[in-house]
Amino acid sequence: LGRIYYYNKMYDEAKKSFQNATLANPKNADAHYRMGLINYMKKKYSEAIKSFDKAIHVKPEFPKAFYSKGLSFMKLNDKSSAIKNLKTAVKQDPKLDRAYFNLGNIFLESKNYREALNYFTKDKQLRPNNPDTNFKIGEAYHEMKSYNNATQFYEKTIELDPQHYQALFNLGLIKYAKKQYNDSIALFQKAANIKTDDHASYYEIGKSYESSGNENKAIESYSKAISINPNYTKAYINLGQLYSKLKLFDKAVEQYKNAVTNNP
To answer: What is the value of pTM for the model shown?
Structure first.
């Protein structure tokens, strides 16, 4: 009954059911585990850890409990405890792909890119066609400035998920860095079409147009970025510099004033 409540997101009812189960049988590892999941879903991460510990005490070989405990520590920003529990999870169950993925994320955030790649690659061996895994490998390579490898995995991500905004955007950044402006514009435009309220794509389109010598399109794109986010200082500065280059000094001064107003 508790599981039915849980899967229907009736967490209070599920919690009561699992509490009764643990009272009736304190060695019911699954009930303790489910209690932990409910506390996790309710963002009570410390309580969740206590429940997972009870489950593990009863059943020491419980990879999903170690995995969920690791996620709880991640939410509490306790990375060392998260790593310890996630590593135990994959030691007990080497096919627990999401544990590899989350280990990779921790090391990526810690800028330990080689270790991140190690875990994302293990995840990819289990889930070769998962777009997020391929994207994360690309991101790790990108941070390592291994642009050809990053390109390969971003392209694979987009092949698997053509609507993957961040892969399109990041690949656009690489194409821009390589001065492949037509490609970068096309990629940023696809990203902008997916996330219509995002100023960053239009700003990058503006930079690509400006670098390719198309000042009018650059002005149009910077202006679009500003219309989406009127507080976007970088777009005002670039627009001001572009107007100065075109000797439209009154317009340039206006944009610089806007930049100062937004970033005094």
So the answer is: 0.88
